[in-house]
Structure formats: C-alpha cells, structure tokens
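Quick one, tokens below. Sequence please?
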C-alpha cells in the first residue's frame, strides 16, 4: 500500500463519458434554462416512475420548495428525526415554521414509528399536531412508509420523504420517489451521495398542482404560460410574477452530468451491494452492529455504518483509521444538539436513542469506485484494531 493512500467514506465516480457530456453542454447554446434540465427530469421520472419531477440547485432548496409547495406556513410545525443532516430541519425554519423531532428506532437508525405514534397521541391532546412529517431514509434504506402513511391519514399531516441518501433505492417493490405513501420526496446529488451533479437536488410530488407550484417557485414565482396569466399578454415577451419565489434552478451543465451519471445508477448500487457483502463476511465475529434491514426495502447504500460498543471505542477506531488516511465519518450529530437548535429550547437528553447512536456510529468507506484493494486495506486495519 503506497503512502499517499486517501480513502474517503464516500466520493463521486466520474467517467470520460460524464466529462464529454459536460463538455458538450458547455459548447451548446444553453448553459442554464435549456433543454438539458428537462432531459434530466424526464429520465429521472422514467427511472423512478413518477412524472412530477423538479430538479433543483440542491436538496436543501428542494426541501424548502417541497415544504412551500405543500403549503407550510409560519406557525405550522414540521417533525423530522434528529439523525439527519441539518438541512431537513433548517428548510422548515426558512419558512418560519416550528421544528420538532421524533427519536429513532435504535435498530433501523430511522424515525421510530412507535415514537411517532406516541408523540402524535400527545400532540393531539395538546392541540399541536404537525403539518408535515419528514422521515429520512437513513443510509438509503426506506423508513416504514406504509405505517407512517396510515398515521398521516389518522392525524391529518402531510409527508415529505428526505431521500437524499436514497437515489435508486426501492420500497414495496417500487422506486423511492413515486410518492405512493407521501406527498413529496427530495433527493440530493451532492458528490458524496449516490449520483452527482456537483451540487443539485430533485423533488418529486404526488399531485400535479404541487408540482406546478414548485416549478414556478423555483424561478421567482414567474410563469410564462398564457393560460394561467391574470392579464392579457402585452406581447410574447410577457411573463407574470404571481408570488414570491426564488432562484433555485439547477443548470444544464449540472444536468448533463446527472443524466450521464443516471445511466450507471443500477451498476453503482450493485457495486455498493457487493461492498456490503464483503464487509459483512470479513467482519464476522467482530464486536459491532449494523443497521437492521427492512424486508420491504432495497437500500441504495449511501452509507455503511457500524455501531460500536461504546463512545470510547468509536473515538479510538475513528482516530486510528484517520491516522492511516481512511477518512471515516460520523453520521449524524443529532440536529437538536446543534447550538442553533439548543437556542430554540432543545436539550441534550431530549432524544436519547439518537444521542446513544451518535456516540457509537462510524461510517466506513462506501462508494461506487471503491477498489477491492482499498476495501481490503480498510478491513485489514479494522481487524488489526480489534486483535
Ligand atoms: C445531503 C443531505 C441533505 C442536503 O443535500 P444538499 O444537496 O447538500 O442540499 C439533506 N438531507 C440529508 C439527509 C442529506 O444527507
């Protein structure tokens, strides 16, 4: 093994074809607001089986747009899980909504349906039911959407799936993003995720009305569709800004990369499955646990997390692997413990399962381009550590 080893926990996979696709777009007529965005959206729509896809500048802007499109307002509340990236909660704060959390199931690392139900019963009594619940498909493995969907009917809330980790993953034999059990679903194309556009995201919807609102909110609240204008057009240059929107557009350059990456989505996930099989086999007998599988789901394996016995061992193993240039990572610091959220009134101890998980979790290298040699080296170091 050479001295310049550098093995991250996750990274992009870029081919000559990707580079050519981006180059071709750079030399084409449109760098943004061109046909490349629609091509990417429609191919993504084919892959996941939902025509209502809006590509965005990031998953964070996608979450903001999804919440807006579903009618989230100041005074409403969004519930998510502490075991997520801060963006899931922050996007609700952009709108002036309240945020609260539901603790995780210690085996699935996803939102606990039991805790969700208990919290809903209490919230109904206290008259503070959430407007939206945002489960996070942690590491690419679906939450129990049928159960959450049932609760949404009983307690009358909307569902946004944070599927930032779950591009290409399935649930109930269908691709995540089809919105069978939700109102909207948000994906991320950040380079550490399954496929990349540099920065970028995509929102899918169950309803065409929400989809149309999102398309308009993405670009300043402007429409050029004469059908929906409130005044007769002065000429073909006419456009109307009908409500306050944003510039959350993705570019054609990014979409060219995304479209090219999408072609390798299935092989990408297969490779991740191979990596998982090798880890499981090689780690047999070692003293740590894994995310328990969901029998109704196929994970996209954005992350491969091990759960160590305690905080001290996790810290030691993290430091040891980092000292060997294996850039393992910790996902996630519970969102409610961030200073911003502590200032809003949350405290350490509020969500003990998420905090206990946080103290013991470690994300090992897991990406499409991870070579067998590099994986073997990671495995050897971990075995060395435990012997
Ligand atoms: C990465 C991530 C986001 C944010 O994605 P961006 O595309 O970087 O904005 C949101 N939620 C989760 C769970 C993520 O992992």
């Amino acid at each position: 093994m050479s001295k310049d080893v550098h093995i991250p926990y996750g990274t992009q996979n870029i081919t000559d074809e990707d580079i050519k696709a981006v180059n071709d777009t750079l030399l084409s007529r449109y760098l943004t607001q061109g046909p490349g965005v629609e091509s990417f959206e429609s191919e993504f729509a084919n892959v996941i089986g939902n025509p209502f896809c809006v590509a965005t500048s990031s998953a964070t802007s996608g979450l903001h747009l999804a919440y807006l499109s579903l009618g989230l307002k100041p005074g409403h509340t969004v519930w998510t899980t502490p075991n997520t990236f801060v963006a899931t909660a922050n996007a609700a704060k952009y709108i002036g909504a309240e945020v609260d959390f539901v603790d995780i199931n210690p085996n699935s690392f996803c939102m606990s349906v039991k805790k969700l139900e208990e919290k809903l019963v209490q919230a109904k009594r206290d008259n503070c039911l959430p407007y939206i619940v945002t489960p996070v498909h942690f590491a690419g493995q679906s939450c129990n959407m049928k159960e959450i969907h049932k609760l949404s009917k009983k307690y009358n809330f909307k569902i946004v799936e944070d599927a930032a980790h779950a591009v290409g993953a399935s649930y109930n034999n269908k691709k995540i993003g089809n919105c069978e059990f939700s109102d909207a679903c948000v994906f991320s194309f950040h380079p550490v995720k399954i496929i990349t556009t540099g920065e970028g995201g995509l929102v899918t919807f169950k309803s065409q009305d929400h989809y149309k609102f999102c398309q308009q909110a993405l670009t300043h609240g402007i429409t050029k569709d004469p059908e929906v204008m409130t005044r007769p057009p002065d000429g073909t240059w006419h456009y109307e800004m009908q409500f306050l929107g944003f510039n959350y557009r993705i570019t054609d350059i990014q979409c060219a990369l995304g479209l090219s990456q999408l072609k390798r989505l299935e092989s990408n996930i297969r490779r991740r499955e191979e990596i998982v099989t090798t880890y499981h086999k090689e780690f047999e007998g070692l003293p740590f646990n894994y995310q328990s599988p969901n029998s109704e789901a196929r994970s996209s394996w954005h992350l491969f997390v091990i759960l160590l016995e305690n905080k001290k061992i996790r810290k030691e193993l993290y430091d040891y692997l980092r000292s060997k240039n294996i850039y393992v990572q910790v996902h996630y610091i519970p969102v409610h413990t961030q200073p911003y959220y502590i200032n809003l009134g949350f405290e350490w101890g509020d969500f003990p399962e998420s905090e206990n998980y946080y103290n013991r979790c470690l994300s090992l290298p897991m990406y499409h381009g991870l070579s067998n040699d590099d994986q073997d080296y990671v495995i050897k170091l971990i075995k060395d550590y435990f012997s």
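The first strand starts at residue 7 and ends at 8. The chain has 13 helices and 17 strands.
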